[in-house]
Specification:
Blueprint lengths: L2 H28 L7 H25 L5 H25 L1
Helix pairs in contact: 1-2, 2-3
């Protein structure tokens, strides 16, 4: 397995564990919110660690089989999703 795939896999394993902790903390915070999109926030919080899993598995499969932009998109996926989730949470406060 190429080095970039190994590095991305390690980052995604750590991101999945930390993302799960982040999701639990976010759910506790979301439970006290009174905004109309609270259900969307709950689902979005649970999908944070899932995006790291999708990225790790997706890059391992796509590396060498797909064009580079697809691989770059899969690497960026959890970071872009997490940024969007944090911005949505900030808007909710």
């Amino acid at each position: 397995m190429p080095l970039p795939v190994i590095i991305n896999s390690l980052v995604c394993v750590a991101g999945t564990v930390l993302g799960a902790l982040f999701a639990v903390a976010s759910i506790i915070s979301i439970a006290n919110m009174k905004v109309p999109w609270v259900n969307l926030l709950l689902v979005a919080a649970l999908l944070v660690p899932v995006m790291f899993v999708v990225s790790g598995v997706g890059v391992a499969i796509a590396y060498g089989r797909s064009p580079q932009p697809v691989v770059f998109g899969l690497v960026a996926l959890p970071w872009l999703y997490g940024t969007g989730f944090v911005l949505l949470m900030l808007k909710s406060f």
